[in-house]
Amino acid sequence: MQDILGQAIADYQAGQRRTRLWILPSYGPREQMPVRVYFRSPSEMSELEHIALGACTGHILDAGAGAGSHALYLQQQGRKVTALDISPLNCAVMKERGVTDVRKGDLLKWKGRRFDTVLLLMNGIGITGSIQGLKEFLSTASNLLKPGGQLLFDSSDIAYLYEKNPAPGRRYYGEVDYQYSYRGQTSGLFSWLYIDSKRLRKIARATGWHCDELYREESGQYLMRLTR
Fold first, then answer.
1. What own/partner pairs with CB < 8 Å and gap ≥ 24 does 133-139 have?
2. In 98-194, which residue ranges form alpha helices assigned H by DSSP?
3. How far is CA 148 from its chain centroid?
4. Helices marked H in 60-154 — which ranges?
C-alpha cells in the first residue's frame, strides 16, 4: 500500500471507517488524523476556508484537492474549478463524489493550462517541503497563472511546538518530516513546510510577489494571497 492517505480516503468513501489513520511527525509523538476532515461539509469548514473560497476568482485550480470538498463547494457555487491531486485513489473518490473536472498530477511539475486562482488549502503550500523548495516554487509559480492571477494558501508558525520539544538541528523549524500509518503499513518519510508569515513575506518579495494577509486566526494560522 504505497498511497496510504489515498487508501484511507477511499476506504472512508466506501464506508470503511473503523481503521485509524496516524501521522508520525518528526517533532513529537504520533497523532491521529481524522479522515472525516477530508469530507467535511461547507457548514463544517472554518472561517479561514470560507474567506479563501470567497476570494477565488475566474478559473480555479484546487491543488492537492484530496477528497474534493473545496472543489465541490466551488462547483456548487457555479465556479469553474479544476481539482488536482497526485493520488489516483483521491481522484477516483472526487469523481465519485461529483467533481466534474479532476486531474491526476503533481502541482510542482504542472505544465498544463494557466489559471486565475491557484488554491492551496489545508497548508497546501507545505508541499514545497523546505525553505529552498518554497523559493524554487515561487520563482516559477507565475507560470501557473494567467495575467493578474493569484495564489491563495494558508500556513502557520509552529514555533510553539518546540516549547517543550527540542528544535530541529540546523534547518528551519517549520521544515518537518512525516509518515502516514494505516492498516498496519507505514509510508516513507516525506517533507512538509510550515512557514511563518514574516519569513514568507521576505521570500515572496525576493521572488517578485506581493503579499496580502486576508485573515489570521487566534491560533496564528493565516491566509495569504500572493500576486505579481
1. 133/191, 133/193, 134/193, 134/195, 134/200, 134/203, 135/203, 135/206, 135/207, 137/108, 138/203, 138/204, 138/207, 138/208, 138/209, 138/226, 139/207
2. 131-140
3. 22
4. 69-76, 88-97, 131-140
pLDDT digits (tens, 9 = 90+) for 45-85: 999 999 999 999 999 999 999 999 999 999 999 999 999 99
Determine the Cα–Cα distance for residues 61 and 73; give it in Å rounded to an integer.
13
Predicted pLDDT at 44: 98
φ, ψ at 88 (rounded to 5°): -65, -30
Which residues 6+ apart lie within 8 Å of 189 measured at CB? 177, 178, 179
pTM for this predicted structure: 0.96
Instruction: Check: CB of residue 149 under 8 Å from CB of residue 117.
Output: yes
pLDDT (tens digit per residue) in 129-178: 999 999 999 999 999 999 999 999 999 999 998 887 777 778 999 999 99
